Amino acid sequence: GAVVSQHPSRVICKSGTSVKIECRSLDFQATTMFWYRQFPKQSLMLMATSNEGSKATYEQGVEKDKFLINHASLTLSTLTVTSAHPEDSSFYICSATPPRGGINEQFFGPGTRLTVL
Amino acid sequence: AQSVTQLGSHVSVSEGALVLLRCNYSSSVPPYLFWYVQYPNQGLQLLLKYTSAATLVKGINGFEAEFKKSETSFHLTKPSAHMSDAAEYFCAVSGPAGTALIFGKGTTLSVSS
Question: Mean pLDDT throughout B13-32?
Fold first, then answer.
């Protein structure tokens, strides 16, 4: 099956610093990747849709300047949390969709736990 | 627009008992439906998916789900719960190609001995 990796799996940073999270599709090319945020005991909240070579589409209420998304290649999308604050602490999960017709199936990364002190 | 409703945020069963997690969907087009399981501090693992083939779908770990169009439901079942089934379960519906999955709020399954 298709495999998606995320790096790092866990990061702790100081308030005010920036953190970059990588999402890679290991054995397929992903024209579209998605970034989700999950608070404890809650469901996944879609943050943005990332398409290779174009600007990401952000969901309402998600700050574009705070959560920078770059999808520079068909196998890599990055999420940078700029000037992180404690309220940005969360579990971030990416997913990727292979470029084929039919089922709109997504493959999920293992997630990144961000803790901002 | 598509949506998913999971009835019951928390379900508790005894080991060996039937597991039933409910999911109802709303979709203006024939849906693709998914069930995922999430263990603490881990990502999502696909349990099973409905892709308009058989209405009874068998997944991993002994789980299965039945697509009922008349009831707009896709409930997840397992005949006999195991302690290792304790986790968070999410139902999701697929939108058009290139769009994100739409998730329900999740159901926490607890299994007691």
Answer: 92
Nearest by CB to A43, which of B51, B98, B105?
Answer: B105
* Paired tokens of B52: 């308009």
Q: Which of A22, A25, A16 is nearest to A116 (CA)?
A: A16
B29 touches chain A (CB under 8 A): no
Q: Tell me, what amino acid is at B75?
A: H
Contact call for residues A109 and A6 (beta carbons, < 8 A): yes
Note the pLDDT tens digit of each residue in A47-66: 999 988 888 999 999 999 99
The residue written with tokens 């890599």 in the block is: A76
Query: How far apart are the C-alpha atoms of A11 and A116, rounded to whole Å?
Result: 8
For the beta sheet containing A76-81, the strands, ordered from the edge strand earlier in sequence to the opposite edge, are A4-7, A19-25, A76-81, A67-73
Nearest to A19 by CA among A66, A55, A56: A66
What is the tens place of the pLDDT at every residue in B56-108?
A: 999 999 999 999 999 999 999 999 999 999 999 999 998 777 788 989 999 99
- Which residues does chain A have within 8 Å of residue B34's beta carbon, measured at their own beta carbons? 105
Q: Is B106 on the interface with A (CB under 8 A)?
A: yes
Q: Which two tokens stand for residue B109?
A: 């399954």
Interchain pair A111, B97: CB under 8 A:
no
Residue type, B8: G
